[in-house]
Every structure is written in structure tokens, then in C-alpha cells.
Specification:
Elements (H helix, E strand, L loop, with lengths): L1 H21 L8 E7 L3 E8 L2 H6 L11 E12 L11 E7 L2 E9 L19 E9 L2 H4 L8 E4 L1
Parallel strand pairs: 2-3
Antiparallel strand pairs: 1-2, 1-7, 3-6, 4-5, 4-6
Length: about 160
């Protein structure tokens, strides 16, 4: 009986924490902005800014609507290297420097679930940017998002 009393509070605490964290996706950013492409097309983008948000990105998401994306903003122009760890969907990855597209990686496929981290492809080596945009696969081409395209944040 005494043993059961000791374990009951521990179990209840553990159950609460498990339920709380399993029902709350802590990786999802709460900031959404409008991104204007070539002064004519607006996209709704989820802005990620913390290290954890950047690390997680779109991983484990089962879909991404056309007209939406995820925007990674960096304080400095640096080489921003991405991988597809935990990704379930194909995406286009767009590197942006000083408001201009500098590179687009089209239709990047998610890895198979058994792929080891050391075997995951890295994208963006040698590309220097201060923002990276992820959109649904094929969408960059659909909206004519190419090297040199003008990108503006609309507040």
C-alpha cells in the first residue's frame, strides 16, 4: 500500500507531462508574415527564429499548402546548409541574400525513414544568404521564383 502511494504522484506527474508535450508541437513558430515575390505575388510564411525552430523546420509535417512556406531569417550573411532529416514531404528550398534569390533547389525529396544522419544529403554548401524559404515542391517553378527574383517582407 505504501509503495502504491509513492508511485501514484510520480505516475500522475509523468502522465501530465507526457500528455501536455505530446499535444503541443513546440517546434511550430507563431509568427506569420507576408512575403512578396517580384512585387506581385504574396506568400504567407511562417517565420522561424529560435535555434530549436530552425533545427526542426518543416520536419514531421505531412503537408504544406501552395501559397504558404517557412522562412528562416539569419542575422548575418553566411552559408546556410540544410538537410531533410525527419521530412515527410518534398519541398523547394530558396536561398535569399539582401532581398534577392541567389539559388533554388527544386523538388528536394524526403529521405527514407531508415537513412542515417551521416548519409543525409546537405543542401546549400557554398551558397551565402541571410534568409532561406521552404515552399511546396514545384511551387518555386510554378510562380517563376528564380535567381534574381525580388523578395520583400510585408509587415
Amino acid at each position: 500500500m505504501n509503495r502504491q502511494r509513492c508511485f501514484t504522484p510520480f505516475f500522475l506527474c509523468f502522465a501530465f507531462l507526457f500528455l501536455f508535450y505530446s499535444n503541443h508541437d513546440l517546434s511550430i513558430a507563431s509568427t506569420w508574415l507576408t512575403l512578396r515575390v517580384d512585387s506581385k505575388l504574396n506568400l504567407s510564411v511562417e517565420v522561424v527564429s529560435t535555434v530549436q525552430e530552425k533545427r526542426t523546420g518543416l520536419a514531421h509535417r505531412s503537408s504544406l499548402e501552395k501559397g504558404k512556406g517557412m522562412l528562416f531569417i539569419y542575422e548575418q550573411i553566411e552559408e546556410q546548409v540544410f538537410w531533410m532529416k525527419g521530412m515527410l514531404i518534398s519541398i523547394d528550398i530558396v536561398w535569399i541574400r539582401k532581398g534577392r534569390v541567389v539559388h533554388v533547389e527544386h523538388s528536394v525529396l524526403p529521405p527514407s525513414p531508415m537513412t542515417k544522419d551521416s548519409s543525409l544529403l546537405r543542401y546549400g554548401r557554398g551558397i551565402y544568404s541571410d534568409m532561406v524559404l521552404e515552399v511546396p515542391a514545384g511551387y518555386a517553378q510554378e510562380i517563376s521564383l528564380t535567381q534574381g527574383s525580388l523578395i520583400q517582407l510585408v509587415h
